[in-house]
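This week, look over our next protein:
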Amino acid sequence: MEELRLSNWLPTTNKEVKIRGWDALDVILFSGDAYVDHPSFGPAVIGRILESYGLRVAIVPQPNVNDNLQDFVKLGAPKLFFGVTGGCMDPMVSNYTASKKRRDKDAYTPNGNIGFRPDYATTVYSKILKEKWPDVPVLIGGIEASLRRVTHYDYWSDQLMPTILESSKADMLVYGMGEQPLREIVRLLQKGVPFSNINTVNQTAVLVISEDDIPKNKNWEDVEIASHETCLKDKKAYASNFKIIEQESNKLYARRIFQKVGNKTLMINPPYPTMTEEEIDASFELPYTRLPHPKYNKRGPIPAYEMIKFSINIHRGCFGGCSFCTISAHQGKFIASRSQESVLREVDVVANMPDFKGYLSDIGGPSANMYKMKGKVQEICDRCVAPSCISPVICSNLDTSHKPLTRLYQAVDSHPKVKKSFIGSGIRHDMLVPEFNKNADAKELDDYTEEVMTKHVSGRLKVAPEHTSDPVLKLMRKPSFKYFHKFKERFDKINNTKKLKLQLIPYFISNHPACEAEDMADLAAETKDMGFQLEQVQGFTPTPMTVATVIYYSGYHPYTLEKVNTPKTQKEKDEQHRFFFWYKHENKAWIKNTLNKLGRTDLLKVLLPENDKWRKNKPGKPKHTFNDAVPFNQRKNKVEFRSKKRK
């Protein structure tokens, strides 16, 4: 790679602005993350898109909110707007564990240091900018803004909050992946349209003060959901809102959503169609340095960057629609896949990085094996309102062929500098089971599984059955656990035939809505019976914009409005989670007492038999604890956060 100069990065200081010979800026971005100029980091993508339109763009990463707020004025006012994001993870997930305790690491900060990202960062940054520069528009985006675009339950403050547009005082919100709406916003601004007049761009939301200001659009149908004030008074009304929100977020031809917030009206315009191959290729091929800004050279490595440094993101979106996951709410359920040629060009760039040793850490996406998958007949997808394409069964219109993905893996591995490419993203094991994926070619599924196991796994294959209870799994929009048994049979067969000695590592969730203590005891017994001593486990964390979170707060399922029991107290949560660690010495007396109370001596015989052959564990803290849990939607993002304990 050619030697890089400071001017190869977007400027972050006045000195860097002057190096470029600029006397003013068009857009200034504020981010809760350290600045990494890489396509896996949203602020870099947005900055590079703006730059591609000839705009002069600067970025202020992790501005200090605890001093005289110099970071918010040092670059002056931009000509067009401020752009604000809390970062690649919701700041509250980044800052707190599932039990609301402060984390001791921030993966998006040099050296993993904490304290550089405020709680509710998007709101904090935006309010400061509006106070300092009241006449300059503020545009918010990223996962925090996207998932908080309507009335939402905030787990950390334990209250319903209005749209983030109200709390942040921002002028406009871009939800989802922001490239398409941003390009249209810039096009209109460059035509001379005032920012305040831009209110009909797809995939944006604004607060309208007067109903007379609501723009007419003959191409859109409208729908109104229960007001914020109604939601505060009526949990069932709040729950009923979510069915509309989720369905409209995942339709190709969605309605415009209105919600009253006090004397204002929130207007959420329909999303853009899924990005085309050309559009997503273009986004990944902007002139990134693929490196953290040099300002961090002496501060230590950025954990999130180190994790994805030698990885390749091949698609966006997820059609799983899991009830606890926000990927489809943010990235959409339809898959936007890069071309094989674009992926291979990026592989070549990575392979020629000075410290590349021949190993690609991940060829994947939100779910590793959804590349190039889409509806066979587009007209059927055009009419679909289902939030998931594979729950409760795999849609007969869904093409789940793994051939394009297998060919891509083989093409990547043919690069002369690539010794091995790993699949680090989560694999949907259920789609590899012919008994579940009934319309697929069984041999093709086995060929893909064998390709992954023999060439792309480093000792352990991670999959996510999430639970063993069918009622809980049904609510999760996950298939029956019997299909995990089927997958394990195929895994074991390939393992034995090829003499691989690979481990299968399943993920599980405790205290999810509809989960009872007895379900967790069943889970512990069944997984022990299968030979697992669980380690990849987490407690359910309610995050905005999921079915499970709506149920957690309201007690109602948003699609049926039937009541659903949910573990709410810390005692209930801790006790459910404790079943994961049945093998710990300090848990055995408690498990014995609990199962006797439940009348489940049958499970007791499985978990704590008289002559248990499982190795004895000394008393001590479990290696993987509830406090280290990271929500599924953040886990499945391209960048995964792990504390030291989970490495």
Notes: Residues 6-201 form a domain with the Rossmann fold fold (CATH 3.40.50.2300). Confidence is low (pLDDT under 50) at residues 615-647. The longest strand covers residues 503-510. The longest helix spans residues 482-497.
